[in-house]
Amino acid sequence: MQHRNLTLRLDADVYKEVKIIAAKRDTSISALVADKLTELIGEETGYARAQARALALLEQGFELGTKGKVGWSRDELHER
């Protein structure tokens, strides 16, 4: 896998906190950022795939047991 460098500007307080988190997890800040960005990509592409599947199902339609024929009228359904 080919890697690219990224320059990131953080507030000093944020940098200090993220450095502590990275040390607790025995990793680097760079690895933390890379993992989070990879996770974000997975969420976005996962959502896009789920949306495409849902739209395909809606386009296809669902079998509701009527075989596409309505055997009643609106008035019949709303009789009082």
Summarize the structure.
By secondary structure, the protein is mainly alpha-helical. Helices cover 61% and strands 0% of the residues. The chain has three helices and no strands.
What can you tell me about this protein's structure?
This protein has 80 residues and is mainly α. It is 61% helix and 0% strand. It has helices spanning 12-24, 29-60, 74-77. The chain is elongated, with a radius of gyration of 26 Å. The termini are far apart. The model has no long low-confidence stretch (mean pLDDT 90).
Q: How much of the polypeptide forms β-strand, as a percent range?
A: under 5%
In whole angstroms, the N-to-C terminal distance is: 69 Å
Low-confidence segments, given as residue ranges, are none
Rg is 26 Å
In helices, the fraction of residues equals 55-70%
The beta-strand count equals 0
Helix tally? Answer: 3
Order of helices and strands: HHH
Dominant shape: elongated
User: Overall mean pLDDT score?
Assistant: 90
Q: SS-based structural class?
A: mainly alpha
Q: Major sheet, described briefly?
A: none
